[in-house]
Amino acid sequence: MSLKSIYGKFVSDEVFSYGESIMGELKERFEQIDMIAEYNQQKVLKAMQDAHVGEASLGGTSGYGYNDIGRDAVEKTYANAFCAEDALVRPQIICGTHALTVALSGNLRPGEELLYISGMPYDTLHEVIGIRESKGSLAEFGVSFDFVDLKADGHFDYDGIKNKIKDNTALVAIQRSRGYSTRPTLSVEEIGEAISFVKKLKPSVKVMVDNCYGEFTELKEPTEFGADMIVGSLIKNPGGGLAPVGGYIVGTKECVENASFRLSAPGLGKELGPTLGLNKNFLQGFFLAPTVTAGAEKGAIFAAAVYEKLGYSVNPASSSPRYDIIQAVTFNDPDAVVAFCKGIQAAAPVDSYVVPEPWDMPGYDDPVIMAAGAFVSGSSIELSADGPMRAPYTVYFQGGLTFYHAKIGILMSLQKLVDAGIVTKEKLKLS
Ligand SMILES: *Cc1c(COP(=O)(O)O)cnc(C)c1O
After folding, report:
1. Distance between CA atoms of residues 51 and 73, nearest Å
2. What is the pLDDT at residue 179?
3. Mean pLDDT rounded to a whole number for the chain
4. How far apart (Å, rounded) are the C-alpha atoms in residues 400 and 380?
5. In terms of domains, do 55 and 199 share one?
6. pLDDT tens for each residue of 38-59
7. Pocket of ligand 1, candidates 118, 129, 210, 398: which has the most ligand atoms within 8 Å of its Cβ, to mutate?
8. Which ligand 1 atom lies nearest to the CA of residue 235?
9. Number of folded domains in the chain?
10. What is the CATH number of the domain that holds 383?
């Protein structure tokens, strides 16, 4: 039996052959990613050994969760791997937005200002901060907000930052990943330069990095470049697909402690919090996270190369440096966005028979189409895609627990475009 015959159960010969021609061009690129994964695998292994992860760490507690040695081992592992003093890694943190909320509200006080220096924050944080009026926002508690856009070339605007750092600027935030915007993702090295700049101007300021989607795409994390806190979601990269829920805050003892008093309660902090049997998932997922992230990254590069060659605008380009797992493809055609998402859905291990349609999602101005057939609901380290139904009709693709799964997802998306007559067979042959 050949690869071609098994792929034949999903896509046409033309689509498969086109995919294989793309694969041939990506060898060197994939080798670089494997090297990063290999390094990070050993980094995580060492972190676990140094944290004394033992069989007893795999159990969990209920109720108050006092003396949860597994939870302590998980948090020590994260702190070790990311070269930080302490960590808060909990199933009580529901998602990335929640983790960021806990980190911000624990470390800011009334009268202080939060300054984002990577442009406007990720959408869900607008209500957290109070950029969009919202009950319980930081603004309601007297914390003000300002931001500095990145320059047109996607780099930090150092003059702008200098002008905006004031007496009451207490926390500077940097978003590593582009999220669903068009600016480039920031490398950890560039983030490090900005942190040094900010700390030189005002040593007392704390720097938080929204690390979502960036973990393990490089050899180091922003904590190794002076970030006081890095924050993310366990249903993205660091959960390795096995964490069914959770978020993390890793950083200085002070920042993590401040955050812990918001997550539980003042006076309780990190001492409480049952892990409900999830320590094993957290540890095993973290152990697999470097290779899972590498697979997702390869999938993103494969997607970029597949659609770039067909003449679509992709961001980042297949050959560009890459510091997160998100891939944008712009179709300038609503039908193409729908076809793409249908292909991704049809490639899912769960809910493959469901057909996604655009719908009016709360919080969005335009209908959005989403494709996800995941073991963990909403997990975006698993194969997923979404796109707002508005010009220029861009679809955002991410994840895949293995590269092979991301690959078939992309090929099936292309198959749907071929079936819809948007990409012709001739074009596949010529490209
Ligand atoms: C996903 C993401 C978030 C929010 O995460 P949720 O888990 O969806 O709440 C915040 N910032 C960035 C950059 C993200 O990618």
Report:
1. 6
2. 81
3. 96
4. 8
5. yes
6. 999 999 999 999 999 999 999 9
7. 210
8. 7
9. 2
10. 3.90.1150.60
